[in-house]
Structure formats: structure tokens, C-alpha cells
Amino acid sequence: ADDGFGVGRSLAAAWGAVGLAVVGGAALLVAAHRLGERRGRFVSAVTHELRTPLTTFRLYADLLADARDGDSGRRADYVATLQTEAARLARVVEGVLLYARLEEGAARARRERVDAAELVERALAPSTRRAAEAGFELEVDVESMRGVVVDADPQAVEQILLNLVDNACKYAAAAPSRRIMIDGVAEARAVRIRVADEGPGVPAGQESAIFRPFRRAATHAVEATPGAGLGLALARGLARAGGGALRLLPRRAEGGACFELALPRAGAERR
Fold first, then answer.
1. Residue 100: what pLDDT?
2. What is Dmax (Cα atoms) for the chain?
3. Amino acid 14: pLDDT
4. What is the spatial distance between Cα 249 and Cα 271, in angstroms, rounded to a whole number?
5. CB under 8 Å to 243, separation ≥6 — which residues?
6. First and final C-alpha spacing in the chain
């Protein structure tokens, strides 16, 4: 009887091991499938985003080569277009590389103590240019944060705000209002900087998906809206790496989308 009991225990242990192996194998298959999907989205998004400026480069380089020496106005337009596409291409490449460093944990925040209002004002230079290119105007009100010292990485804040403004320029492009509002409020442990537009807003049910890499809101076609789908994922990663947070605020009655960047005040414990 003892031998039978021992055999039964051995069989049970063996089946248990088999069950664990099956579960582990299934988990590996699911993880591999998800990784494959993610890589597929990456390749699709980046390939699409690189193809457009490269096609423009080829076209305008040919036009520039064929332009007559006396046609200075047209040549200047061609050069301007090439410069714009070069900047766009650089943004894509830099964004992908920075996101890869964040994923690997290789990106390190260089935090310093700085006045919150001055930080935002200095960080907005690239965002102002991006808004002007798209026909938007930034309305900035950060006076309530003046004199409040935060612990932040200025370059990361600049990139986050640029990504949020760029996102507003893309998805609020058809809005009758050409305003992007940026304001802030100081709290006991953090300052909160809001970037709002008056576009269609984020569709219900897509609030979490928009922060995933290589994802877009479902109602916006990738072909119609340029970008690799990394902007918000990168912005949230940079915010977290610097001890802060980035979130989408609940839909406003007046419509549009509003994102909030929280930065820790100097001396406050990390979030």
C-alpha cells in the first residue's frame, strides 16, 4: 500500500510538473506573440513615418537639381521644404532612440532645482515654433507657479511639452480654434502643468491606449496623421524617469483634450 501511495505521489508530482511546464510554455508563447505584434507595429509605424520625408527628399532634390540658376525663388522654396523634412526625419530618429533608451533603463534624468514658471517658459521655444508651423498659437499662463522651485530635468520637460504640443497640432488640426492653452498650478508637493486644445478630444475607451507605444486613437487614420505613435509614450516615460507623472484629464464639457504633467517640488519625496 505504501508503494502504491508513493507511486501515486510521484505521478501527481510528475503531472504537476507537466502542468507547470505547459502553463509556462503557454505564457512564453503569449509573450512571444505580444512581442511579435509590438515589433510589427514598430516596423509598420516607423517605416511609414520614414517613407514620407524620404520620398519628399528625393522629389525636391530632383527639382532642385533641375531648377535653373536664375530661378532663385523656386530654389529657395525647395531648400526650405528639404530643411523641414530633414527636421521631421531627425525628430523621428531621435524619438525612437530616446524611447529605446527609456525601455532599456539607460536614460538618466539630470534633475536640477529650478523655478517652475521659468522652466516652462524656457522649455517652450521648440513648442512655439512647432505650433506656428501648424498655424496654432500658444496661450501661456504660468504666473501662479512663479517662485515655486521644482526638482526636474529641463531637457526632459522641454521634450514632454514639445510632444504634447505636437500631439495637439496633429489631432486638433481641423478645430476652428487655433489655440493651445498651457497653464499651471502649484500644490504642496508638486506643480501641475496642463496642455489643452480645443479639438475633438480622445475617444471614449481610448484613454489608456494612447499612451502605449506605436498606438493611435482609433478614430484617427495613421495615413492622415503623421507620426510614429511614440509621442505620448515617450512623454510619459520621460515624466516617470524624472520622478513626475503624465496623465490625460477627464473629458471637458467644452471638448478638446487636456494633458497634465506633474513635477515634484524641490524637497518633496519622489512620487
1. 67
2. 105
3. 54
4. 18
5. 109, 111, 151, 263, 264, 270, 271
6. 61
Cα–Cα separations (whole angstroms), residue 5 to 2, 8, 15, 250, 253: 5, 5, 15, 61, 69
- Give residue-wise pLDDT tens across range 2-31: 555 554 565 555 555 555 655 555 555 554
Question: Cell digits for 155?
Answer: 531637457
The rounded Cα 148 to chain-centroid distance in angstroms is: 27
Task: Quote the cell numbers at residue 189.
Answer: 508637493
Convert the pLDDT of each residue in 19-64 to its tens digit.
565 555 555 555 444 545 555 555 555 555 566 667 777 777 777 7
The residues, ordered by sequence, that sit 6+ positions from 114 with a Cβ below 8 Å of its Cβ are: 149, 150, 152, 154
For 115, phi then psi, to 5°, come to: -60, 130
Assigned C-alpha cell, 244: 513626475
Structure confidence by residue, pLDDT tens digits, 155-206: 899 999 999 999 999 889 988 889 999 999 999 999 999 999 999 888 888 8
Nearest to 206 by CA among 214, 215, 198, 197: 215
Q: What is the amino acid identity at position 53? A: P
- Percent of the chain, pLDDT > 70? 63
Question: Which of 233, 243, 236 lies closest to 260, judged by CA?
Answer: 236
Which residue bears the cell 539630470?
A: 110
Classify 115 as helix, strand or coil: strand
Cell 509621442, residue located: 231
CA distance 125 to 165: 11
In whole angstroms, give the CA distance from residue 43 to residue 47.
6
